[in-house]
Amino acid sequence: MSEPQDDREAATAEQVNDAQLGEPELPGRGAELVAPELTEKEQHAAETLFGDRLDLAKQYVGHLCSTGIEHGLLGPREVPIMWSRHVLNCAVLAPELQEGSTVADVGSGAGLPGLALAIARPDVEFILIEPMERRVEWLSTVVQDLGLDNVQLIRARAEEVTDEVMADVVTARAVTGLKKLLPLTVPLLDDDGELMLIKGRSARGEIAAAGKSFSKHKLANPTVELLGEGLLEEPSTVVRARRRSAGPR
Ligand SMILES: C[S@@+](CC[C@H](N)C(=O)[O-])C[C@H]1O[C@@H](n2cnc3c(N)ncnc32)[C@H](O)[C@@H]1O
């Protein structure tokens, strides 16, 4: 199975959240990587979103800030903003998911948003699709350590698993621009399924650039929603679009 030569080959300049991810550099010798303390506002948001699974979320952040950085999944500059910009930014999708549903996360990387959501919603099944071997190995270690039984990991590109994955919701963050993201995500959607794509401020521009791609992929008109308003310092911008049901044949 082919693997992107470099993450940034797949994650092109058009992706909005690239800047959030920082440079995937390894920490300097002797660098201390400590999970950041939650601010009062973050603590409130984390309690609201993770409830009695907050300790698991802290364990995940501990992994992100130690082995996640050591393995180059995120840059060390992300440590102070690991809660706000990454984990909470993703977890705000959790209340939008329906009990018993299946979510496929395309290009999970360090588990964002897939793993953050799987911690918050043990009543939902998650399929994390990620082509890079070292990322999948790291994810597998974390899933085992956290004892999550609602996560399936698939090492593949999204376009390679259209025959085996059928989800009620497909998520993605910082994978590529909408125009290229639609052909990767829509084929994984069940009838009436919904895309929830975390985007930055360029969401509306990306929708405009995608032109007729939404209708071409049999999607209803997309909406841009701010999730986590009042809860997060900076709410998450999510592009949502539901697949038009096939209707009676
Ligand atoms: C910049 S990272 C973002 C990771 C994570 N979603 C986040 O927000 O931190 C982009 C990820 O998408 C993955 N990726 C790139 N092309 C892909 C494809 N066609 N199918 C699935 N994953 C892909 C890369 O391997 C990489 O892990």
Automatic annotation (TrEMBL):
<dbReference type="InterPro" id="IPR003682">
    <property type="entry name" value="rRNA_ssu_MeTfrase_G"/>
</dbReference>
<feature type="binding site">
    <location>
        <begin position="158"/>
        <end position="159"/>
    </location>
    <ligand>
        <name>S-adenosyl-L-methionine</name>
    </ligand>
</feature>
<protein>
    <recommendedName>
        <fullName>Ribosomal RNA small subunit methyltransferase G</fullName>
        <ecNumber>2.1.1.-</ecNumber>
    </recommendedName>
</protein>
<feature type="binding site">
    <location>
        <position position="173"/>
    </location>
    <ligand>
        <name>S-adenosyl-L-methionine</name>
    </ligand>
</feature>
<dbReference type="InterPro" id="IPR029063">
    <property type="entry name" value="SAM-dependent_MTases_sf"/>
</dbReference>
<dbReference type="GO" id="GO:0070043">
    <property type="term" value="F:rRNA (guanine-N7-)-methyltransferase activity"/>
</dbReference>
<keyword id="KW-0949">S-adenosyl-L-methionine</keyword>
<keyword id="KW-0963">Cytoplasm</keyword>
<dbReference type="Pfam" id="PF02527">
    <property type="entry name" value="GidB"/>
</dbReference>
<keyword id="KW-0489">Methyltransferase</keyword>
<feature type="region of interest" description="Disordered">
    <location>
        <begin position="1"/>
        <end position="28"/>
    </location>
</feature>
<feature type="binding site">
    <location>
        <position position="107"/>
    </location>
    <ligand>
        <name>S-adenosyl-L-methionine</name>
    </ligand>
</feature>
<feature type="compositionally biased region" description="Basic and acidic residues">
    <location>
        <begin position="1"/>
        <end position="11"/>
    </location>
</feature>
<keyword id="KW-0808">Transferase</keyword>
<comment type="similarity">
    <text>Belongs to the methyltransferase superfamily. RNA methyltransferase RsmG family.</text>
</comment>
<dbReference type="GO" id="GO:0005829">
    <property type="term" value="C:cytosol"/>
</dbReference>
<comment type="function">
    <text>Specifically methylates the N7 position of a guanine in 16S rRNA.</text>
</comment>
<keyword id="KW-0698">rRNA processing</keyword>
<feature type="binding site">
    <location>
        <position position="112"/>
    </location>
    <ligand>
        <name>S-adenosyl-L-methionine</name>
    </ligand>
</feature>
